[in-house]
Amino acid sequence: MPETHLEADPRLTAPMRRHLRSLHLATVEAYRTWCRENGFNVRLNKTLPQRRQELASSRKTTKQHRIDSELEAHINALGLGTVAEYQAWCRAHGAGDGLQKSKAQRRHEIRLGQQSRSREKADRSSASQHRRRRKDLLKRIAAGDIDDRDLTSPVLLRVRHLFQNAPLDPGARSAFLTLLLHIESQGRLYHLKPVVPQFGSQPANNFVDGLASLAACHGRWIRKVEAWKPDSHNGRRQFGALARHLLAEYDVPACMDTAFFAGMDSEAKTRQDWFVHVGTGQNIRKAAIPLRFTKRMAHAFIVSAPSGYTVDMALRWAQVIGMGGDDLLAESVCDSMLGERFEDGPFWETVLHFFVNNPMLDVAHVGPIVDYIHHRRTVVQEQRDPVGSVRSIDPPEPDFTMKGRTPESMLRRVEAWHRGMNRSQPKKSRQWASCGVKGYTWVDEDERAGEIRTWRIEEIRNSRDLSYEGKHMKHCVASYLTSCANGTRSIWSMKVEYLGSGTTRNVLTIELLNNRKYIRQVRGRSNSRPTDAHSGRAQEGWNVLSMWADQEGLTLPGAKSWAMRRV
After folding, report:
1. Which of 84, 100, 213, 517 has a 20 to 30 A CA-CA distance from 527?
2. What is the chain's pLDDT, residue by residue, as a tens digit (567 residues)?
3. Cα 399 from Cα 478, distance rounded (Å)
4. Element (H, E) at 53
5. From the CB of residue 268, how many other CB atoms can be counted at a distance below 10 Å?
6. HEC profile for 21-49?
7. Residue 408 CB neighbour total at 10 angstroms
8. Is the dihedral angle over the CA atoms 304, 310, 315, 317 positive or is it negative?
9. Cβ neighbours for 165, distance < 8 A, ≥ 6 positions apart
């Protein structure tokens, strides 16, 4: 560094003039400014130790400035912008995230950066080749030129199955291929994970089958596939936008998207027709829906139907809202069997009017009342003869009506029904086969009691245990006898056993839809919801339930889903 030319100043002694030159300062004012900036006294008569301290500070600052400029140049050479990005890059590549690096260390990092960029370039090239190869495979699959043995991807195997076995006409097959080729480069719809939680693991509940259902409607497409571009990274939103691009000129409720994930049978096609009907600007009341809709119900369905519902549940929800019920009542009705079934519509309308006209009735009683009415009106009973044989008899009250019913009388009937079911334990218990899902065991420690405990989730497989579960937990699970026996549903009991005291506690009762592997309902004692508890066995039991669901591949409603209220 060139020597600083110091102006003559009578206030400076010879040692102080040399000191200012060492600091590369030309004037007394510059020296005093430097002292103030660096925390030193501004006097001009400094001792030798003071001058040495100032000189050391100046050299350290100069060195730091040089290091900072070198660090900035190094960060730029790596293609990074900030020190934080550089430190994160170092950690990701196995280098220390300190800022004081030697020249050898920085050269090593430059090499790492070059290798990383080369790998990224190779990965992009490989991904591009993979996409080209997948497009070629899709065309060969559509042409029938490739066998299952030549495919390893589950998605491509499912695509081949649909081309070979789905009820697609030649135009639909061509449309399906066009969708697949366009989505391959534009969307995130290439996986087989369940899309609609309520449908569980049904084969058609995935985006690939949904695209096939869209292709089956190719005759109604109003726009070209190639004109669609995704505006979201969420697969469900992408599919909904694609369906509306192809089939809708007007707004369609999000719940109607579920029609494309139920397969291509007559019922699914009917619901897809509803989507097209609404998408072309027609009134949902004029569609072939199974309910009698008023204008108010139709408005509620189009404007306010919850997006997390299936289209069937949304129709029932809008019916209750249109009758004058509130959101809580509508949700409770959808949680019951009425959310999935529409038969005997005029009678069930009278039941819904009963609920709407009695707003002080706790909505927690809606499900049990619906179950009781269904049992009395439509469920065929079984009667055991003295010799032990079983014969079927008609429902107890096939002409049951709501005329003259009050909330108090209905609650008394439901309570008596529960007591009767829980007392009626036949001498010979009825058995049924397992649903195929394994139980679960978990061992932990109860910190409050200081005891080791064992959690067990076990399937109930006979009528005696089912009746005991209902009696012990004070709810109507015994009414599920027929559903368990015919294999459509299974009931599971969660218990916890304390090893020290030897006591066993019933914690939760779980309803599982067998074909979907969907946990539809979870109840504690007296129909309480475990998710309403903030502590205690019910909340801890919910955590064990979640681990069981993960182990067995069971579907639970999402944390923010409307259906979480039911479980």
Report:
1. 517
2. 455 666 667 788 888 888 888 888 888 888 888 888 888 888 888 888 888 888 888 877 776 666 577 777 887 888 887 777 877 788 777 777 777 777 888 888 888 888 777 777 655 544 444 456 778 888 999 988 888 888 888 889 999 999 999 999 999 999 999 999 998 877 678 888 899 988 887 889 999 999 999 999 999 999 999 999 988 888 999 999 999 999 999 999 999 999 999 999 999 999 999 999 999 999 999 999 999 999 999 999 999 999 989 999 999 999 999 999 988 899 889 989 999 899 999 999 999 999 999 888 878 789 889 999 999 998 887 666 666 666 777 888 999 999 999 988 998 998 888 777 666 555 567 889 999 999 999 998 887 777 889 999 999 999 888 888 888 887 777 767 877 888 888 999 999 998 878 889 899 999 888 888 888 888 888 777 776 655 567 778 888 998 999 899 888 876 555 455 555
3. 23
4. helix 48-77
5. 18
6. HHCCCCCHHHHHHHHHHHCCCCCCCCCHH
7. 10
8. negative
9. none
- CA 485 to chain CA centroid, nearest Å: 31
φ, ψ for residue 456, nearest 5 deg: -135, 135
Task: Give the strand pairing for 390-393 and 381-384.
Answer: antiparallel
Extract long-range pairs of 96-105: CB within 8 Å, 24+ residues apart: 99/67, 99/71, 100/67, 101/71, 101/74
Which amino acid belongs to residue 92?
A: A
Q: Are 524 and 538 in contact (CB under 8 A)?
A: yes
CA distance 529 to 492: 16
What is the number of other CB atoms lying within 10 angstroms of the CB of residue 207? 24
192 φ, ψ (degrees, to nearest 5):
-110, 20
Residue 451's beta-bridge partner residues?
A: 446
Residue 306 one-letter amino acid? P
CB 410 within 8 A of CB 425: no
Please give the angle made by the CA atoms of 443, 447 and 451, to the nearest 5 degrees: 55
Pairing of strands 504-513, 489-498: antiparallel
Q: Alpha-carbon distance 241 to 244, whole Å? A: 5
Q: How far is CA 99 from the centre of its chain?
A: 42
Looking at the DSSP assignment, which residues form a beta bridge with residue 120? Answer: none
Q: Which amino acid is at 473?
A: M
Residues 6+ apart with CB under 8 A from 460: 466, 469, 484, 490, 491, 492, 493
Distances (CA, A) of 166 to 15, 136, 197, 215: 98, 21, 23, 11
H helix and E strand count, the chain: 19, 7
Does the pTM of the predicted model rise above 0.85?
A: no
Taken in order 556, 562, 566, 567, the sign of the CA dihedral is positive
Q: Which residues pair with 384 in a beta bridge?
A: 390
Q: Give buried/exposed letters for 433-454 (b at 16+ CB in 10 A, else e).
A: eebebeebebeeeeeeeeeebe
3-state DSSP assignment of residue 197: helix
Nearest to 456 by CA among 531, 513, 507, 525: 507
Given a contact cutoff of 8 angstroms between Cβ atoms, the answer to whether 222 and 247 are in contact is yes
Single-letter amino acid, residue 180: L
